[in-house]
Amino acid sequence: MSKPFPIFSKDMTIEEMSNAANRYIECEWKSLYDFMHKDLTAAFWEIEDAAYGLYLEQLMPPIFEQLENAGFNLKNELEETDFVIAKHLIFRNSIEKWGTEDNRSRVFWNVVRDKRGHALGTLLTEIPHSHLKFDIPSAPVILSLRGVSKEEIIQGIRRIKEHGLNS
Q1: Is residue 24 packed enough to be buried (19+ CB in 10 Å), middle (13-18) or exposed (0-12)?
Q2: The pTM of the whole model exceeds 0.90
Q3: Is the model's pLDDT at 31 over the cut of 80?
Q4: How far is CA 75 from CA 33, 111, 114, in A?
Q5: Which domain of life is it from (predicted)?
Q6: Beta bridge partners of 147
Q7: Which distant-in-sequence residues (6+ apart) come within 8 Å of 164 by Cβ?
Q8: What per-residue confidence (pLDDT) applies to 77?
Q9: E-strand stretches of 30-158
Q10: What is the pLDDT of residues 33-78, one digit of tens each?
């Protein structure tokens, strides 16, 4: 059985990109979680939160690859100390401030640019997770923001997490 791929086209808005990515995640996240659960539960006791990175390494590449195939660029300048998941989720470009220990929320961000290098907006990847055991209590979600500066992105994430507003 082949995996469904998210479908992106070069004329999509940032909101359309997040919707397409979420359709893919809805189809894939739970079966992948169930398939990897035993191994990632064991890994969690050794590497803690890094086990969620192993999960995202399997879930996210089709989204990033298909965005690039449609002509979008998500690349960031990497620093020597960067911890990167699935080639595009950079730990320093994330925030984890919300939720309880058994249902935390980490949000990564990626500015999306067109072929000419113009920023189109930002895709946010939210991964709900537990710090007590390996558990992803609900599907990861891709959200969109129009803002592209670090300040706009952080304000947008706070607005979404604290008030439930996507913009």
Answers
A1: buried
A2: yes
A3: yes
A4: 27, 8, 11
A5: Bacteria
A6: none
A7: none
A8: 87
A9: 84-85, 89-90, 94-100, 103-113, 119-129, 141-145
A10: 999 999 999 999 999 999 999 999 999 999 999 999 999 999 888 9
